[in-house]
Design brief:
elongated; alpha+beta; 2 domains; 4-stranded mixed sheet; 2 helices; Immunoglobulin-like
């Protein structure tokens, strides 16, 4: 080896010193950079929810921030309620009865709605989900998982390169 060429171990370490901080910067960007909010005009929405032992149909609802949401709760079998976490919203319907209530979706995020009237043994598991806005947590999670896979492949490539060059 001549004096101008680098030792393989030094080359591998210099690549690691370069790619390590780059990885950290990418992770911080994924976690901290605000994602663009889709501009949408608030609209009036009417959502019909059927309650029966021990489920809500539909079990997942998606609305945009600022939407005026009218919920029609229909009980199919026994008395059921619907209470929405983080909102002052609660309905109660007798069997065969339709009750309505309205709220403004002014908080972004994912919220649970629950049966607020004890309707049987599995009552605590009667839960639904309201998503207000986009689910950016999922997008960030997928990006971090992709980065982890890329890091694993890069790590395997470094170890294979070092091993094929006889570096320990």
């Amino acid at each position: 080896m001549d004096a101008n060429s680098s030792h393989p171990a030094k080359v591998a370490r210099s690549k690691l010193w370069f790619y390590g901080p780059v990885f950290v910067v990418i992770v911080l960007l994924i976690l901290l950079v605000p994602l663009p909010q889709a501009a949408s005009t608030p609209t009036d929405r009417t959502i019909r929810i059927e309650a029966s032992r021990f489920q809500f149909v539909p079990g997942e609802i998606h609305v945009n921030p600022g939407d005026k949401v009218t919920v029609e709760l229909i009980s199919q079998d026994v008395v059921h309620g619907l209470s929405l976490d983080n909102y002052n919203f609660n309905l109660q319907a007798e069997p065969g009865q339709i009750v309505t209530g309205t709220f403004i979706a002014n908080q972004s995020g994912v919220f649970r709605f629950r049966c607020s009237f004890t309707c049987g043994n599995l009552h605590p598991f009667m839960i639904g989900k309201l998503t207000v806005g986009s689910n950016y947590l999922l997008i960030r999670g997928i990006a971090l998982a992709g980065l982890a896979v890329a890091g694993a492949f890069l790590s395997m490539w470094f170890s294979t390169t070092r091993h094929s060059q006889g570096v320990r």
